[in-house]
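Checked the freezer inventory, then went back to the computational side. Two predictions to log before the end of the day. The first one is the construct we discussed on Monday; recording sequence and tokens without edits.
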Amino acid sequence: MEVRLSQVLNRELKARNESVNSLAKACGVPTSTLHNCTQGVLPTAKNLHLIKRLADHLSLSVTTLLFNVKDDKPGNSILFSSQFVDGDMRYRLTIEKESKD
């Protein structure tokens, strides 16, 4: 799946006639983080917890906010996986939905 956070966020801002600044203030997510997200910059690992806060504020599932798909598949599933190399280190980022059970 492709991350579509910027498209979903921009759509929601337009539909709600809301600015990045007012949304940031309302949900407690830094303005710079939201602005970056609207420009297609994915949140850093230290900011990933803010995605849940933003999704809750917008009354969206994390899956819908990140990928613009309905979150109707039960159980575990890998939603996104990416790898990158930084110097001698290799990193893998995986977003996996897990059931609550």
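The second is the one RB wanted added to the comparison set:
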Amino acid sequence: MKPCIICVAITGSLPRKADNPAVPITVAEQVESTHEAFEAGATILHAHVRNDDETPSSDPEKFGRLMEGVRKHCPGMIIQFSTGGRSGAGKTRGGMLPLRPDMASLSVGSNNFPTRVYENPPDLVDWLASEMLAHDIKPEIECFDLSHIHQAAAMQRDGRLKAPAYVQFVMGVKNAMPADRDVFDYYIRTVERLLPGSEWCAAGIGPHQLTINEWSVAAGGHARTGLEDNVRLDRTALAPSNAALVRRVVEICNRNQRPVASTAQARSLLGLQERKS
């Protein structure tokens, strides 16, 4: 059985209030939470950073300190920076890419979020993709819609993305794609048809996280978990820590006789060399 790569999304924009004591905000807290998740079995860190007032940030200095801390305390862990719209607008979303993380998220199309449009205009998508190529960063293609898989395939065909792709299905966002099993299965077939040789992962939002984790592991894909996704509609967390959520995925892997990928196995599956600096 193919080893399952576990990605932990540690913070996102989840506010830290009385109901969310485990949400890591400062860089030091993020490194500590990542280390606990790493010890539990996570091999990819999906990272956002925060300003001093706890709002999402695009500050490359904070991303740099987070990367330094994770490399020190979590040897070999794959570092994936978010270029999502929470941390800025326009090219500020990719301002940390010259730091050369192993991976970065890339949304190749727009869609509705609960209260706004998540805008990913073609010129910005092309610029982010070109920056990732220039800095030898592997994109994680975040697919909120079937059209995003088709767009990623087109970008790979014309050289804007390097093969093989790593595709993540995002399901359960309000006003976007729900957690629908028929759609999930069709996503897998579409990736296999249009992006042969690619690896895929899936993320479920809020109460759908466990369901999507179970579907992904059973279907031979990889799994994303973490407090960024594990939220109720009132923006309070559904779990006590990132490590607890990683351990839950490990249990799902054990039930499905899927070994949990080591850092070396994850890097081999994704074609990543470990970076020392």
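For RB: Residues 27-40 form the longest helix (14 residues). The chain has a mean pLDDT of 93. Let me know if you want it refolded.
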